[in-house]
């Protein structure tokens, strides 16, 4: 691993622990100047310094030395497809992508960006669907009820405009996910719009 990758990994791990450079220096019993030089890539920690840093960050030395974001289009595909879980319940369309994003956001290229966009879109979608259902049903449907797609299909039997709108929104969600699966296989960035930027 080159100095820059090692420096950025240590910095990322420090921030994940919620440490300032001063706190890392204190926890690792290294000087602040040493921590600053390591994070700037001016020096590479070896031996005792590496051991102290890894102990302070509560990670394995191998986690730092072998780390480099890898490319995995398969994982990006599955991450995008995880949004389809909204079909079973809209909250699953948020929870499953969040779990997948947390697990690999620092390990696989593109997961952080794709995950945030997908999660923002699914939160926006869920809020919109339930706002519409609550208004149109007079409070009959709630978040813990059946999925929005089930409600739309059951309401569609009455051929109402409301049910058609909910069904169209569900179909738009599905088509957007499929489009982003194709984009990820081509190595392109994902695009989920519209979405309120809850996660930046």
From TrEMBL:
InterPro entries: Cro/C1-type_HTH (IPR001387), Lambda_DNA-bd_dom_sf (IPR010982), MamF_MmsF (IPR019109), TransReg_Diox_bact_type (IPR050807). Residues 10-64 form the HTH cro/C1-type domain. It is found in: Membrane. Keywords: DNA-binding, Membrane, Transmembrane, Transmembrane helix. The chain crosses the membrane at residues 83-103, 123-143, 163-182. SMART domains: HTH_XRE. GO terms for cellular component: cytosol. One of its GO terms (molecular function) is DNA binding. Pfam families: HTH_3, MamF_MmsF. It comes from the Bacteria. It is a multi-pass membrane protein. PROSITE patterns: HTH_CROC1 (PS50943). This is HTH cro/C1-type domain-containing protein. It comes from Pontibacter flavimaris.
């Amino acid at each position: 691993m080159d100095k820059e990758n090692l420096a950025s990994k240590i910095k990322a791990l420090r921030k994940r622990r919620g440490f300032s450079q001063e706190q890392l220096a204190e926890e690792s019993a290294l000087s602040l100047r040493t921590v600053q030089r390591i994070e700037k890539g001016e020096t590479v920690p070896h031996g005792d310094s590496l051991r102290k840093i890894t102990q302070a960050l509560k990670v394995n030395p191998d986690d730092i030395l072998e780390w480099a974001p890898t490319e995995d289009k398969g994982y990006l595909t599955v991450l995008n497809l995880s949004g389809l879980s909204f079909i079973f319940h809209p909250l699953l369309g948020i929870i499953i992508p969040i779990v997948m994003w947390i697990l690999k956001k620092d390990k696989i290229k593109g997961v952080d960006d794709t995950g945030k966009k997908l999660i923002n879109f699914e939160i926006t979608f869920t809020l919109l669907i339930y706002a519409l259902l609550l208004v149109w049903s007079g409070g009959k449907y709630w978040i813990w009820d059946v999925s929005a797609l089930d409600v739309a299909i059951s309401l569609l039997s009455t051929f109402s405009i409301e049910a058609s709108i909910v069904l169209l929104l569900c179909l738009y969600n599905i088509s957007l996910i499929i489009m982003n699966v194709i984009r990820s296989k081509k190595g392109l960035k994902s695009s989920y719009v519209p979405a309120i930027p809850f996660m930046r």
